[in-house]
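REQUEST
  id: r-88c1
  op: predict_structure
  target: Ubiquitin-like protease family profile domain-containing protein
  payload:
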Amino acid sequence: MAVFFNMLTRVIWVIDPLYHNKLACPPTGQRDEIIAWKLHDALFTCLNEFYAGWPTSKDNWTLKFPSMTNCIFSRADTGGCVLHVARHFDAHKLKMPLTKYTVSKTKRDALHECLKLQGNFSSLAQDAFWKVLAPSDSAFV
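RESPONSE
  id: r-88c1
  status: 200
  body:
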């Protein structure tokens, strides 16, 4: 799940890829609500400790649990889903829909970004690129 805090509107967005439009009641809703409020308390403890005078209050916040997809994802897919949500959520909606294809693309893009990190000298990066560029010459055949 991903939790976003909109400091201007005092809304906590709790987005879990296991919520989909075909469910009447999310299976993890109660647990996610407890986690969101604990994170809210921890955030304001941190703000009060390190940023005294922060121009917002801990009180009168609301929780929103939007369903962002019609797709049913497995728990194994949720990491890619959360990464997609973190990249494409604009505080109201997803700029790019949450589908099996877009999650797969997000996972590939994230792998590519990790492999091309400056200072990555592992052979895994080279082997993975060869697998993509010249599959017949790859050590992963």
